[in-house]
Write a structure and sequence with these properties.
mainly beta, three-stranded antiparallel beta sheet, 44% strand
């Protein structure tokens, strides 16, 4: 099977992003996103996880070296596609992320769930 790969590269802040659009012979499209670059870190008092300051310093990130925490964060990518390929008899489901509710006594305090919605018109598919 042969595939066509169209790649774009961009630098945003401390990241370099590569986006590969992979077109398959069967009509499917895969999108691969690659992120690389320099870690965004913050300095902290903690040298080892046994230190008294470790719990507070790593509350929102991970100790990756003595006195350096990498903050927890997310990357979101959005793509706009024209679905009139092969006619207008297609359907589209907009899947939004929303915060999930943790069950009692769960060590996990936050997570994401999806909220799918069938979109009838283009304006309904827009993200707020």
């Amino acid at each position: 099977m042969t595939e066509l790969v169209v790649r774009s590269a961009s630098q945003v802040g401390n990241y370099d992003y590569l986006v590969d659009y992979v077109f398959q012979q069967n009509g499917s499209i895969n999108i691969d996103v690659i992120a690389t670059g320099i870690d965004a870190v913050k300095g902290v008092a903690t040298k080892h996880l046994k230190d008294a300051t470790a719990a507070k310093d790593t509350q929102y990130g991970s100790l990756i070296a003595p006195h350096l925490v990498a903050p927890n964060h997310d990357h979101y990518f959005n793509f706009r596609l024209d679905f009139d390929i092969d006619g207008q008899n297609n359907s589209f489901v907009h899947t939004a992320l929303k915060r999930g509710k943790a069950v009692a006594n769960s060590p996990r305090k936050s997570f994401w769930v999806t909220n799918p919605k069938m979109v009838e018109r283009e304006m309904e598919g827009r993200c707020d």
